[in-house]
Each structure stands twice: as structure tokens, then as C-alpha cells.
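Run log, item B.
One chain of 490 residues. Sequence copied directly from the ordering sheet:
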Amino acid sequence: MTDKAKRINPLDNVAVALFPLKSGETELGVRLSADIPAGHKFALTDIKRGGNVIKYGCPIGRATEDIPAGAWAHTHNVKTNLSGINEYEYAPVRGAAGAPASGSFEGYRRENGKVGIRNEIWVIPTVGCVNDAAKRIAEKANAALAGRVDGVFAFTHPYGCSQLGDDHKNTQKLLAALVKHPNAGGALVIGLGCENNNIPAFREVLGGVNEKRVKFLVCQDETDEDAAGLRLINEIAREIEGDKRETLPLSELVIGLKCGGSDGLSGITANPLLGRVSDAVCACGGSAILTEVPEMFGAETILMNRCASREIFDKAVSMINGFKEYFMRYKQEIYENPSPGNKAGGITTLEDKSLGCTQKGGAGEVTDVLNYTETLTKKGLNLANGPGNDICAVTALTAAGAQIILFTTGRGTPLGAPVPTVKVSTNTPLSEKKPDWIDFDAGVLAEGAGMDETAAALLALVAETASGRKTKNEISGCRSIAIFKDGVTL
């Protein structure tokens, strides 16, 4: 018989309902005094006011009133323990290597040695003023080039002008990372002509490119920018349509790890599943990237102590405390999280969310910490600076070099990155309700499926997707970018 509730760690004083439970039922030896929705917690023992509520073997907050055994434990009677900026001591823990994945996929080896899993043309506006022109050109080109390339896609944004300092630099660097992304066999960069991020200025940040694969268009210089853009995209297509997939080892994979619309099952099913896949890919020489810095708060020491060196640990500390300082500059509560949807799904505090969220990074060694817009250079598990906001986070993962993103969700979302975005549901009802959104159901783990075989199935889907199988976001056309902004807009 499938268990209806789970005590995640022997130290826990709460358990999680895997399915809706009714008041009066007895689960794990405790008689329930309230209905417990799926994903929500109930006390296994009496928890006194001020006492720690323990989940994942760690405190996720403290009781604001006495919570008797069998009672519902949630936002009405549990409060975060977190506050302020912390000092950290490096206490290295050797990361578990995990069992290496075996297998291969069919990808594109680019001239710079990087590997892509799509042969697309990306249209990148230097400034928001030309967004509509970029979309028109991409739509016309996509229809005209069907079957010759994997698609033509415009990635619009509101920036590129009226920005100052790091915001302007980050816009340039992020767009440059997209232009050079290996999933794009070529790119058309469209500028207006009078913007701060004009094409000559952008090219200084972009650096050297293959001029046969990367073209530039200044709309103010053209009588008909649509016709000019289509002509340039046709030139790119003639250059890249001969690119062929070749068999490549899984060590060439770079997977991005993301969760959005989490629920109380995220840390039990989908996120640990991604952790297992991440460990397997990294163990065979591949790479994984974990971001969403505010959703590391409360679990950050677990990641910090897995850093491969003191230098990387120091970078992780700087990333964590730097993001807290960002909150404080704007006089905002550092721990104003989780979201209403998270709470409805059973996540009570930021510690609760973070301890589940960071499981996507598995148990392996942290090999590097990347600044926002920085591209991965070291194999293994990398932490990337960036916010938890879904669109900003998947954009940051793409810019960091992820060819594919594994995105867990307990509430559901159609969102997609520029790269294939594999949606993994934390619970089976979501997968059944939203088959057009969800690519893989991790809810089977709550129903008794084994972790090993489920991880093998997800890894097989990743290899198939890397070889050309379309994800639900690709089929539906859900592809977006968002650029993280901190400062002044003129």
C-alpha cells in the first residue's frame, strides 16, 4: 500500500501529506486533528511555542503557538528563524560523486568546440525600441525557412537604452551570451541606431564572431528593415543549414536547474529527482547550473560546504550576502518569500522552500560560482547569481550556457526559456490536468515508484530532447527572456 504521508528525515518533528488527509485519520502513528491538504505538514509530536519545526532534518522555522501532535503546521502557527546578513565558516564536506550517467545524444559541435542541441537562428534586439521589428522578421523568416533550420526566434526585452552602470553592462553581456549560445547556429542582431547599446558599442562587448553566422542590422539605416532582415537571415540559413548532428557523450551536456510554483511535494519528488540527474551528469564529466539565490537563503551552508575550495566558498558567500544587501538597499524584507502559490501548496517559510529548492543541485561538489551573465567554464555543478523570478532565472541559466533546462513545478506554468525547458511536475494530478505544459511526472515517486528507475527515465528524456525531441514549451511557442535590473532608468 502506498504511504499517504512522509517523514523525510528521522530528526523531523513534522511529516508531509502526500495526498489529502482527513481529520481523524491516523498517519505515521499520529491521529490528525485537522484536514491536511496534499503537500502540507502535520506535527508528529507536540511542539511548544518557540520550539523549532524540523523538516529535512533542519529547522524550517519556529512555532508561534503550541502545536499539538496531529495538528496542521503552516503559516498560521510557524514563523521563519532567518534574519539579516550572516558570517559563514568554511566547513568543507566532500560532495557525493553519484553514479555516472552513461549514454549519448545527437548534438551540434560548433566551431569553437561548444555543443548545441538545436540549430536555430536567434534574432536579438539591442534595444526594446525594435522589438516589434524583430518579432515580425522572425515570424516571416520562420515560415519561409521551415525544414531548413530548427526555427527562427526573436527574444525581446525593454532595455538597451536609458540604463546606467551595471544595468547597462549586464544588458550588453547577457545579449552577447545569447548571440554566442551554441543552440543558435546563427544570430541576427537588430539595432535602432541611436540607442546607448548601439551596434558598434555592442560589438565591443560581443567580441569576435563568425560574420557568416552573425549578422547586424541598423533599422534607421534601412528603407525597409523587414526586407533587409529577411535577406540577412537567409544568408545565415544558407551557412548553417548544412550543420549535422553527431553522436556526443553525455559529458557534453550542460543542464540548467530551476523550480517555479513549488509545493510541499517539490522537496520530496521532483527536486530530489533533478538532484539525482544532476549528480549523474556531473559524475560523467557534464555540467549543471543552479541559480535562484534568494531561494538558497536558509539552505546556503549546505551548498557552501560542498564548495571545492576556499576560493569558491568565498565566491558563494559574496553571492549570498551580496543578494541580501540588494534587498536591504531597497529597505525590503530579505525573507519575504514564499509566494502565495507556494504557501497554498504547503510551503511555510523560506527555509522550507530553500531546503527543498536546493535539492535540485544533488549532493555533488560545487566547482564554481558564476556572476550574473557569466558563462560556465568549469565542468561540474555551478552556482549562478540571479533572482528567483522564473523568467529572469531561466534567462540567466541560458546565458550561463545551459543547453536545456529542467524546471520543476507543483502549481504549473507554461513558461519556457530560449532553450528547451523540460517541465517536471511534483505531483501526478498536475501532470494529468496540464498535459500541454508538463513533460515528465515526478509525482510517481509519491505513489511508490523507485528513485533509480525514475531518474533513469528522466535522463533518457533529457537525451532524447537533446537529440531533437521537442518539449512542450517549444511546441506551444512559449519562449521568453527577462533581464535582471537593479538601478536607475533615465
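Observations after the first pass:
- The chain has a mean pLDDT of 96.
- The chain is about 30% helix and 20% strand.
Flagged for discussion on Thursday.
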